[in-house]
Specification:
Blueprint (H helix, E strand, L loop, with lengths): L13 H9 L7 H11 L4 E4 L6 H15 L11 E4 L3 H14 L7 E4 L6 H9 L3 E4 L1 H9 L10 E4 L2 H6 L3 H9 L6 E6 L4 H10 L4 E4 L10 E7 L5 H11 L4 E5 L3 H13 L4 E4 L5 H13 L4 E4 L1 H4 L7 E6 L6 H8 L9 E7 L4 H11 L75
Parallel strand pairs: 1-6, 1-7, 2-4, 2-5, 3-4, 5-6, 8-13, 9-11, 9-12, 10-11, 12-13
This protein binds adenosine monophosphate.
């Protein structure tokens, strides 16, 4: 049984404790409790954790603490801390976290990403910053132009390393690593730890402490999951029906393509549902506006592609809809992790057409749960047996379909579309953050 200490027993500097108190953070999340003491000691760290676990504070707090104890001499274009992260949204959020946690400390940070003019970023670097949070492409651009010198980086954080590789940033990450000095503290965070990540970890880290919060294949404890079997052509109507039936809270919808996301926004508009889209074809300003409107509740529904959704940390998301099932099962885990953030409850509904059943089977294998079928909706197809894949479903409108394949989780199909809160995963713990375990150590 893990005893959760308070932030003050972790030995964090007083200005940080004050900033945490302002945010009403009473106790560290498991990854914070496990990682912070080692990071304060200057150890390298390999963290297996996804967003939603509190991993940003797990690295930001000890970094700020160590800077406060040994204030660096600030030099133009030569930051002491570099955090590399795959998306602009995530970079912006990490920047905000440094601003919050460091509000009573004198350190300066800046955020660097593409899609916006480089001049303000160049100016900030010239004036001197202690911490840089960056996406790889723009960072390398600026490094090649001589606007930033990474030889003074004493702490390097590689965040969301698996996503970074998925997005094709591996060569860029290696080029950034080649610019770092030998002597430094390094941290690598990744939700999954496939071979190529471990290879990078071996090159990057020296005798790291290993911290794992929830195995990569687990889904968030508090996310109640369902799947609706539906014909592809009925999905737009099912989407409108599902959103109308879901009483409160923000709804995040995942679409496979940018074009599909735009079409859904239009279709929802026709059903009197205000929605916006966020994807890579939108300008940075349009993405930020869409996110801000969503955050503030002005627009209740955000339709996103995987890459754009990567950094979304919006507290009020109560429903995630997988309009298209992802072909990589890990993406499903990332997507549904957008709800039930920081201890809140959340619901995830997947729309599965007959062609996507193979994806559903892979997801269920990965998460080791049979996702309960929701069949009480006007577009329900008969529930297939995923273990005998092949062929389409026969329509059973009115919700009479039952569950076919073996149910490992022991949860029953859900019949009440209106209520939506249900009986999923009875054995899961109700911890504030996900359960954790230490995978290794010194
Ligand atoms: P992250 O995994 O870093 O994206 O954090 C997920 C969410 O948890 C963010 O909204 C954080 O602001 C929040 N959070 C982080 N640490 C704590 C904590 N100790 N107590 C409460 N909320 C936290």
């Amino acid at each position: 049984m893990l005893t959760i200490p308070s932030f003050s027993t972790l030995g964090l500097a007083e200005p940080l404790l004050r900033a945490l108190a302002d945010k009403n953070y009473t106790e560290p999340s498991p990854i914070q409790a496990q990682a912070i003491p080692h990071l304060l000691d200057g150890r390298d760290l390999l963290g297996c954790a996804q967003t939603g676990t509190g991993k940003t504070a797990a690295f930001a707090l000890p970094i700020l603490h160590r800077l406060s104890k040994h204030p660096p001499v600030r030099m133009a274009r030569r930051p002491g801390v570099l955090v590399l992260t795959p998306t602009r949204e995530l970079a912006a959020q990490i920047g905000e976290s440094f601003a919050h946690y460091g509000k009573y400390l004198p350190f300066r940070h800046t955020v660097i990403f593409g899609g916006v003019g480089q001049n303000p970023q160049v100016r900030a670097l010239r004036e001197g910053v202690d911490i840089v949070v960056a996406t790889p492409g723009r960072l390398l651009d600026l490094a090649e132009q001589g606007c930033i010198d990474l030889s003074g980086v004493g702490v390097f954080v590689l965040d969301e390393a698996d996503r970074m590789l998925d997005m094709g940033f591996a060569p860029d990450v290696k080029r950034v690593m080649a610019r770092l000095p030998e002597r430094r503290q390094s941290l690598l965070f990744s939700a999954t730890m496939p071979g190529p990540i471990l290879e990078i970890a071996n090159r990057l880290l020296h005798d790291p402490v290993k911290v794992e919060v929830v195995p990569a294949s687990s889904t968030a404890d508090k996310v109640v999951q369902h799947v609706c079997h539906v014909d592809r052509g009925d999905k737009p109507d099912l989407l409108a029906h599902t959103i109308h039936s879901h009483a409160g809270g923000l709804v995040l919808v995942f679409s496979r393509t940018k074009h599909g996301a735009n079409k859904l926004v239009k279709k929802l508009g026709q059903n009197r549902i205000a929605a916006s889209a966020i994807h890579g074809n939108k300008s940075q300003t349009a993405r930020e506006r869409a996110l801000e409107d969503f955050r503030s509740g002005k627009v209740r529904v955000l339709v996103a592609t995987d890459i754009a959704a990567r950094g979304i940390d919006v507290k009020g998301v109560s429903l995630v809809i997988n309009y298209d099932l992802p072909n990589e099962p890990e993406s499903y885990v990332h997507r549904i992790g957008r709800t039930a953030r920081a201890g809140a409850d959340g619901l995830a509904i997947a729309f599965c057409d007959p062609d996507e059943r193979v994806y559903l089977r892979d997801i269920e294998r990965l998460i080791r749960i049979d996702v309960p079928v929701m069949s009480d909706h006007p577009y329900a197809l008969a529930t297939p047996n995923l273990h005998q894949l092949g062929g389409g479903g026969s329509k059973g409108r009115g919700g009479s379909a039952g569950r076919g394949g073996p149910r490992r989780s022991g949860s029953a199909p859900v019949r009440d579309m209106g209520g939506m809160a249900s009986n999923n995963a009875p054995n899961r713990p109700r911890n504030r953050f996900r359960s954790s375990r230490r995978a290794g150590g010194r």
